[in-house]
Structure formats: structure tokens, C-alpha cells
Amino acid sequence: MYLLCTIAASLISFLFLKWLKRRRFCMDVKRLDGKTVLITGGNSGIGKETATAMAIRGARVIIACRDMEKAEKAVREIKATSHNLNVLHMHLDLANMRSIRDFCKTFLQREKRLDILINNAGMPSVLDWTDDSFSMCFGVNHLGHFLLTNLLLGRLKECAPSRVITLTCSAYKYQKLDFQDLNYNLFPFFTYCRSKLANIYFTQELARMMEGKGVTAYSVHPGYVQSNWTCHYSILFRIVMQVIMFMFFVSCEAGAQTVIHCAVADEVTAHSGGYFVDCRCASLRPFAKDAGVARKLWEASERMVKLA
Hints:
This protein is of the alpha/beta class. The chain is about 45% helix and about 15% strand.
């Protein structure tokens, strides 16, 4: 009897965990032949799965990342899986503004098209600083992608209709921005939450600015994904998180589905500036829909990265 109860409890627990981890999959099979897709951090995790999906659809795929050895390996694997040889990598360090400017200069010289920009790369909640003295989370997750997108915006407009997809996280709801200290770095998790909220405001303001110009923008919460973000932490933390991720987090393939959906589905164009979860446009907390704050953040970000 005890054995039967144990088996039944285990089965119920397994089914419950599978229910928690259920995700919609992008069913749109649209081809992307002749299109160019740029993905930051496309050498692993969600970024690599997204890059593979774009390559399978026939796109020219460029993954931009800091580690060239990992990038080369990822390109080989993506080519083998997708049977698309039009996949390449370029060096980009989002923690260094000079690297971003150099990357964009080289990209614009080499590439005549940019149809889909996927701001995928990100830093978890770490207490560290970028080369330009920004907190690592805010500097990479928001400011780096802010500068990158702005420097490539002309090419996106030339290739309209085009799309900008920025990965965020539902953790945005735990913090609000403090314009007296945007570079806040006292509690790493709070800094991470603020960077993810900034991604949402950035997307909304970009969509407003590009209205009628053929460029649409979307922020995506991919879910909690079994990626390699724990590599920035201690071995003990990694071991504990591996167990938790196995139980409750979704695979990278599942996590990439909403990103892919926003990249290819026609229906999303009616929701430019929207926040997407599980392949659907989702609601936001009221404070995350403040157009005045979004505009203020945009102007502050321009000053911080010396864009103006």
C-alpha cells in the first residue's frame, strides 16, 4: 500500500510539474528567405535556439557575441542543424560602448539589410560594472541594446517592414525606476529587475517613435528557462539551481518560441510596443505602461550613452 501511494504521489507530482512547464509553440512556418536577422548572444541558450529557427526558415543569420570561440562552435552547429550555410558571427561586447560602436560601423559596412534585430543577450543579477562604469545589468541589458538599436535604426527603416525584439522578464514588476540613480547597483536582483523594466519602456517608446515608419517593436518574457545564466555564480549555487531548473524551468527550445513568434507572425504587427508571453500579447502592471516615464528613460539613456 505504501509503495502504491508513493508511486501515485510521484506520478501526480510529475504531471503537476509538466503542467507548470507547459508552453505554447510557434506554429507559424513563414519563410525568411532574403531576410537578415541579427541576434545578440546567439551562441547559447534561447539565442542559439532562435538563431537556429531563423536559419531553418532561410534567413541570413548573424550572431553577435563576446566569446568568439563559443560563437564559432555555435555557428557550426546551427549550420549543421538548419542546413543553411548563410550563418556567421561577429564580435560584440555589450559591456563596452566602444565595442558597440565599432560593431555597428562594421555591420553597416558589410551588411546591406537588417530585417529583424533580436536583443537577446543579457546579464543576470551580478554585482559588477561595465567598462564604462555602468552597473553590469543595467549597462548590458538596457543601455547596450539601447545604443545598438539606435545605431542600426537607419538600416532597419531602410528595410521596412522590420522588427526589433527585446527580451525582458516578468521580474520587472518588483521594482520601479529611480531617475536619481539609474545606475543603481546596491542589490543585484533589484538592479536586474530595473533593467528588465527598462527593456519594456524602451520597447514602448521605440514603437511610438517608429509609428508609420515600418519598424515595429516587441518585448518578450520567454519564461524561466534552463539556460547557462548560472555560470556567473558559485559551484554550490549552480548545483542547487540545476535541480530547481530541472523541476520548474522550461527548455531553451520552449523559451525561444515567443521570440520566434514575434519575429515571424503577421498578427503581432497590430501590437507594436506590446509585451508578449507564451506567444500572446500580455498585460502589464499599470506603472509599466507610463508613456511619460518611457520618454524620460529614453532621453536619460541618450545622455548616458552619449548618443545625442
